[in-house]
């Protein structure tokens, strides 16, 4: 088989992608060495490297330092997942944003929260319950814990002018996060706060974020009935 | 201010990350040019470039070709989001996997499905309803449409030995996907298939995937009560 000369990394990428999607190279198979591909395409080895690196980042190839490069069996793609400012999300829909702090306390958290926040048993955390509204209607109910040792400035905030969500996004750059998506059947508290019938199925996002210095915040967001969260690969 | 010499891209990255997280450089601010940073750190400009590229990919920096590099205002992180083989997910939990095709038909789809699959009105699609089980208990109910013009081999499959989910992951390399997360209150069909009381809150994933050649499949996955989907930044 002869291949027309390919001089750009984009050209190499396109050809390699074609071989993967048309199953010339099948999932789990080793692909030829970079040097052999460079010879076949009549290009520099660095060009092949650049093309393969991007395909590996996109999840189509599986590269192991010593073992070589295989076609990925289960392509893992990276999707954009952001921590949005809820106010901006609502304003972008052309709706009027509001928020109301329902409670602000400094209790010893339940053991399960202390474990998730990695604080010693008996240590107090800031506990905030907030309702975000869109055109006056409940949008998302936020049940949040914050470690004031990680974020001392939080103690001076009453969150009347800015929501805890927006304040944290603006003030505290997180370095990592843990996301869990699930659903619940609205019980007494959520049903009341979100003004929906008990038993309504609600989408739930649990999120814990940290910096190198430790856990910052752990939040449960319970969205209004019918909410849909969208992302793309 | 003097900075100790930094010779590796990892070192530059660490220092730049420190300046962002400690707000030496604040969100939205332009950071110095690569050449200036290279001079400050006493390293090659390529070293700075490598470090900044990775921080931009991680969402901490916002790079524009002509405008320069700013500290990101809303860090957008990329999370791993994969299309799993449900059998493997269940087996990994140490449970026995099973699947059952509940129906297999070739109707004209509802207009909303035809639009999502980008097929002309009146065109027939393969419609499969499948239940996946873990240790015999309902795990996820899959309601799927497949375009046989994009995947002709699907017409020869009865999916008794392999689920449509696993067959598609193995046989058809997708190139893009659209994900929507939500919740529903179990109605008659889901409640019956998943053996849960009507009104139970259930987590729902709607997913449409395509190749360069067009839409392949659109599926709604309705998970058993209590299911949690986890990912990490």
UniProtKB/TrEMBL annotation, chains A, B:
<dbReference type="GO" id="GO:0003700">
    <property type="term" value="F:DNA-binding transcription factor activity"/>
</dbReference>
<dbReference type="InterPro" id="IPR036388">
    <property type="entry name" value="WH-like_DNA-bd_sf"/>
</dbReference>
<keyword id="KW-0804">Transcription</keyword>
<dbReference type="InterPro" id="IPR036390">
    <property type="entry name" value="WH_DNA-bd_sf"/>
</dbReference>
<dbReference type="InterPro" id="IPR011663">
    <property type="entry name" value="UTRA"/>
</dbReference>
<dbReference type="Pfam" id="PF00392">
    <property type="entry name" value="GntR"/>
</dbReference>
<keyword id="KW-0238">DNA-binding</keyword>
<dbReference type="InterPro" id="IPR050679">
    <property type="entry name" value="Bact_HTH_transcr_reg"/>
</dbReference>
<dbReference type="InterPro" id="IPR028978">
    <property type="entry name" value="Chorismate_lyase_/UTRA_dom_sf"/>
</dbReference>
<dbReference type="Pfam" id="PF07702">
    <property type="entry name" value="UTRA"/>
</dbReference>
<dbReference type="GO" id="GO:0003677">
    <property type="term" value="F:DNA binding"/>
</dbReference>
<protein>
    <submittedName>
        <fullName>GntR family transcriptional regulator</fullName>
    </submittedName>
</protein>
<dbReference type="InterPro" id="IPR000524">
    <property type="entry name" value="Tscrpt_reg_HTH_GntR"/>
</dbReference>
<keyword id="KW-0805">Transcription regulation</keyword>
<feature type="domain" description="HTH gntR-type">
    <location>
        <begin position="6"/>
        <end position="74"/>
    </location>
</feature>
């Amino acid at each position: 088989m002869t291949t027309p000369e390919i001089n750009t990394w984009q050209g190499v990428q396109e050809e390699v992608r074609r071989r993967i999607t048309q199953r010339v190279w099948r999932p789990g198979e080793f692909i030829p060495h970079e040097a052999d591909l460079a010879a076949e395409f009549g290009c520099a080895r660095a060009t092949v490297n650049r093309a393969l690196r991007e395909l590996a980042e996109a999840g189509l190839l599986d590269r192991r330092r010593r073992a070589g490069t295989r076609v990925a069996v289960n392509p893992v793609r990276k999707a954009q997942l952001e921590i949005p400012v809820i106010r901006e999300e609502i304003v972008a829909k052309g709706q009027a944003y509001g928020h109301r702090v329902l409670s602000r306390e400094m209790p010893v958290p339940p053991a399960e929260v202390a474990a998730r926040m990695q604080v010693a048993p008996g240590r107090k955390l800031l506990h905030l319950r907030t309702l975000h509204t869109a055109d006056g209607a409940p949008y998302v109910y936020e049940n949040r814990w914050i470690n004031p040792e990680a974020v001392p400035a939080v103690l001076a905030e009453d969150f009347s002018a800015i929501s805890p969500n927006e304040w944290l996004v603006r003030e505290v750059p997180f370095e990592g996060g843990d996301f869990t998506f699930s659903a619940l059947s609205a019980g007494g508290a959520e049903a009341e706060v979100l003004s929906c019938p008990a038993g309504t199925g609600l989408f739930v996002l649990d999120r814990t974020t940290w910096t190198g210095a430790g856990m910052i915040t752990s939040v449960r967001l319970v969205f209004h009935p019918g909410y849909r969260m969208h992302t793309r690969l």
